[in-house]
Specification:
The protein has strands at about 40-45, 50-55, 60, 70-75, 80-90, 95-100, 100-105, 115, 120-125, 130-135. The two termini are about 15 Å apart. Helix content is about 0%, strand content about 25%. It contains no helices and ten strands. The strands form two sheets. The protein has a five-stranded antiparallel sheet, with no helix packed on it. The protein has a five-stranded antiparallel sheet with strand order 2-3-10-5-8, with no helix packed on it. It is mostly beta strands and about 200 residues long.
C-alpha cells in the first residue's frame, strides 16, 4: 500500500503500411480472341502475291522485293486505321490504291482509315522493283485486352508491443515513514532508522 504502481502506458500500435497498387499491364502487340485473319482482311484475288503476317493483322506484298506485273485485291472487313511498317515502291508506277487514294514511292497510307467493305489494290508494272510494303491494323482496342489490375495487398498490421509496467522503487510515498513501522523507545540511542525510517 506504500508503493503505488504507476498506471501502465497504453501500447502504441505500429503504423499500417499503405498498400502499393500493382500497375496495370499494358496491352501486347499480339491480339487475342476472334481478331485474326478473316476479321480484318480478305484476299479477293492474287493470294500468291499478297500475304498476311503477324497472325493476319498485317498484309504485304511478301518477303523480299516484289516482282513485276503483280496484282492483288484485298477487301477490308472492318473499319480500321492503318499503320505502315514498310513502304518503298517505284513512284507512280507501282502503287497501292485504297478506297480511291493512290500511294507510291515512300508515301504510304499511315493513319488512313478504311471503312468496312473498302478495297486495297496492289499493282506493279513490268520493270524496277523495290522492297515493297507492309501495312497493319493500328492497335485495335477490342482485340488487345488489358489485364485486370491486381488488387493491392495490404501490409500486415504489426501487433502493438505493450510497455512493461514500471516496478516500484525502494522509496515509499504518502504516510509511509517513521512512526508507521518502527518506534525507537527512549533510551534506545544505539538503534537508528534509515531509508526514510523503513529500516
Amino acid at each position: 500500500s506504500c508503493y503505488p504502481t504507476p498506471a501502465p502506458t497504453a501500447p502504441t500500435a505500429a503504423p499500417t503500411a499503405s498498400p502499393t497498387a500493382t500497375p496495370t499491364a499494358q496491352p501486347t502487340r499480339v491480339p487475342t480472341g476472334g481478331c485474326f485473319a478473316s476479321d480484318f482482311f480478305s484476299i479477293v484475288s492474287g493470294a500468291g502475291t499478297c500475304v498476311t503476317s503477324e497472325r493476319a493483322t498485317c498484309i504485304s506484298d511478301g518477303p523480299g522485293n516484289y516482282g513485276n506485273n503483280e496484282r492483288c485485291l484485298i477487301r477490308v472487313l472492318k473499319t480500321i486505321p492503318l499503320e505502315v511498317r514498310e513502304f518503298v515502291t517505284e513512284a507512280t508506277h507501282d502503287r497501292l490504291d485504297i478506297s480511291g487514294q493512290s500511294f507510291s514511292g515512300t508515301t504510304g497510307p499511315q493513319g488512313v482509315t478504311v471503312r468496312a467493305g473498302g478495297l486495297i489494290s496492289w499493282t506493279s508494272d513490268h520493270s524496277s522493283t523495290t522492297a515493297g510494303w507492309t501495312i497493319c491494323i493500328e492497335p485495335y482496342a477490342s482485340c488487345y485486352p488489358t489485364a485486370a489490375p491486381t488488387a493491392p495487398t495490404a501490409a500486415p498490421t504489426l501487433s502493438p508491443t505493450a510497455t512493461p509496467t514500471d516496478q516500484p522503487t525502494g522509496v515509499p510515498t504518502g504516510g509511509c515513514f517513521a512512526a508507521n513501522f518502527f518506534s525507537v523507545v527512549p533510551g534506545g540511542s544505539n538503534c537508528v532508522t534509515s531509508e526514510r525510517a523503513t529500516c
